[in-house]
Structure formats: structure tokens, C-alpha cells
Amino acid sequence: MSTTESAHSDDELFVLTAVLLTPAQFPSVLGDDYPEACAGLGLAPRDTGYGLVLGQDGGGARWTVATDDVPLVACAIAAWDCGMAYDLSPGADSIVGALPGWPLALAVSAPGVPRPHDPAPRDGDPAPLAPPDAARWGPAQRRLGADEIALRWAVWREQVDGEVTFVAPGAHPHHGVRRVLHEARGYLAQPPPPGRVRSSFAAGEARTLRVDGPGWSMVARTDDIAFVLLDEEPGTVHPVGRGPELPGLLASLDALAAHPA
User: Which residue ranges have biased composition labelled Basic and acidic residues (predicted)?
Assistant: First the structure.
């Protein structure tokens, strides 16, 4: 844990974690694409993105601080992922905003300060950020579900008995899945907003794709199958078999995708 000066007050911010907000990598809970995620935080969608620093002030209040020092935040995340200490202290001149609350659920808190709570409202302050309600199903939960599949691909893959035949986007037996495949293919002709299609490393030379659209999410491996989630079907995951056409679609989406630096 490290500290930085809060952009909202003179209190120190006890840093608990940080995430990137870039076209290639952003918390899916915030939106279907990068501009939507930025808009929800009142930020302009800069090409180079932001780092989001989540912490508590001296009174225990939750704050999310946005910084344009993306390399600093990326270095901190990489160090923490390796189990190394890293003092994440963005300079005051790099801080572009501070919002009450946290957009993500955190199970940790700063020692020596009161339990995490939203700061007292002040005139002009936005409503505190909060993670989505896990008890209901909606776009945020759908995107989080796709993230979970991407994170635990092998576990989900083992649950699929056989593969659903993929002949063409209009041939899948499920209407909602057909719509998703049609709209995903449409991205190749008319590129969507940044972040709608993201690509990350997978085993071997494969890539993991996260593709989102209005009311749907798809997660796929370029060397394997895909899974589709729909807003109108809470908690249901539809596998899409590889077949003769899916490989080309996934390869084309990967070429279109935003890739982490």
C-alpha cells in the first residue's frame, strides 16, 4: 500500500489498488466500450487513457482518483502482480479528477483508518461510484460474466460437451446468438467505438477476444470456440462451435481489436 495526495482535499489517499482505463484495457463493469466507460466517470476519452487509483482518505472515505500518468499505474500493477512492493504516488499535476466511491468491489481496506464508506456529499459532487448489484442481472453483470469466462477459460471449456455447429452467422439455432454473430461481423465493415473489441494474450500463439455490443458480450479464443451472453437471458452462457466460419471471423476481429501495449 502507498499514499498519494487526494485531488479533492488535503488528506492523504491510502492507495488500495489501481486499474487501467485505456481503449485496450478497462474495467468491463464500466461500459461496453472505452468512450462509454470514460463517460460514466466524467472523463474525456483520451487516446492514451488513464489510470484509476482506488483508495481511502484519512477518514476512511472511498475515493477513485484518475491520473493521466498511465505508465506509472501500469508499472505499479505489473509489480503488484509479481508480488513486489511499489509506491504508487501520482504527481499532483497528473491528477485529472477525483470521484467519491469505488466502481469496483474491494475486499481490502487501509489499516489505521475507519472502515470504507462513501464521503459526505458536498454541493456539486456526483453520486458516489458503486459496484453493480450482484443480486440482479443487467449489462454490467453480463460483462462481468464474460470477464469470468475469459479468466477461467479452461474451466468453462471443459463444461462444453461437443461443439455447436457454426455454418454461417444466420445458421445458429439460437436467435439471440445469430444476432450477436451478425453484429460482430458487422464490426468488420463499420468499426465500432474503441474498446468494443479487445484482444489479450492466451496460451501459445492464441489470443483471447472480448467483444461487446448492445445487450450482448462474446468471449472467444482465436484457436477455439466462443461463448455468448445476452442481457435478456440472465446467467445463461451459449457456446458457439468453431466450425468452418468462426476462425475467420475471430481472426478478423483480432486484427481490428485494441491490443495492450
Answer: 115-125
Rounded to two decimals, the pTM is 0.89
Query: Nearest Cα to 29, choosing from 98, 109, 81, 106?
Result: 106
Residue 35 · residue 50 · CB < 8 Å: no
* Distance from C-alpha of 144 to C-alpha of 134, rounded to nearest angstrom: 10
pLDDT in tens, 53-96: 999 999 999 999 999 999 999 999 999 999 999 999 999 999 99
Contact 16, 56 (CB under 8 A): yes
Residue-wise over 99-108: b if at least 16 C-beta within 10 A, else e? bbbbbbeeee
Q: How far apart are the first and last CA of the chain?
A: 25
Three-state secondary structure call for residue 1? coil
Which amino acid, 53? V
HSE-CB at 11 with a 13 A cutoff on CA atoms is 18
Place of cell 474498446: 195
Three-state DSSP state, 173: coil
DSSP per-residue letters across 163-223: ----SSTT--SSHHHHHHHHHHHHHHHS--STTSEEEEE-STT-EEEEEEETTEEEEEETT
112 φ/ψ angles, rounded to the nearest 5 degrees: 80, 5
Domain parsing of the chain, residue ranges: 2-100, 139-256
pLDDT digits (tens, 9 = 90+) for 170-221: 677 889 999 999 999 999 999 999 999 999 999 888 999 999 999 999 999 9
